[in-house]
Specification:
mainly alpha; two-stranded antiparallel ribbon
Length: about 130
């Protein structure tokens, strides 16, 4: 019974006009990156539980490999975006060209959820905004 209600709420929420999908600010982050992130977490937990030198070395190696992987993925993504912009420029696709340039200039901008209540006070807590 509870699952049915939960599913109905989810489907109704998707149909409501106020719902939007959050943009992922790291589109290059994929399953392989999640694996490196999990390895890093496990190595850190192992080091916290048993701070031997071998665990410290393991943690440093995992961090180094993960950082290298993330850096390479980010570089590949940026090169692909630059190549896409160059292609848009060559084929005179001005709208997509300028849209891409604006995305590069602005970068990632986190969204702040702030709402005013009847008294004029600012609500920043997600639960109080949802209740409003």
């Amino acid at each position: 019974m509870g699952k049915i209600i939960k599913e109905n709420i989810k489907t109704l929420a998707k149909e409501s006009p106020g719902l939007y999908e959050m943009k992922q600010h790291k589109p290059w982050f994929e399953e392989e990156c999640l694996g490196f992130s999990d390895q890093r977490k496990q190595a850190k937990m192992q080091w916290v539980q048993d701070p031997k030198q071998s665990n410290v070395d393991n943690l440093n190696n995992v961090r180094c490999e993960g950082s290298r992987h993330f850096r390479n993925k980010d570089k590949e993504y940026m090169n692909a975006k630059i190549e896409e912009l160059a292609t848009n420029s060559k084929i005179k696709n001005i709208t997509d060209l300028y849209r891409g340039i604006i995305d590069f200039k602005k970068g990632y901008q986190p969204r702040s959820n702030i709402l005013k209540d009847e008294k004029g006070d600012l609500l920043t807590n997600s639960y109080s905004i949802l209740a409003k």
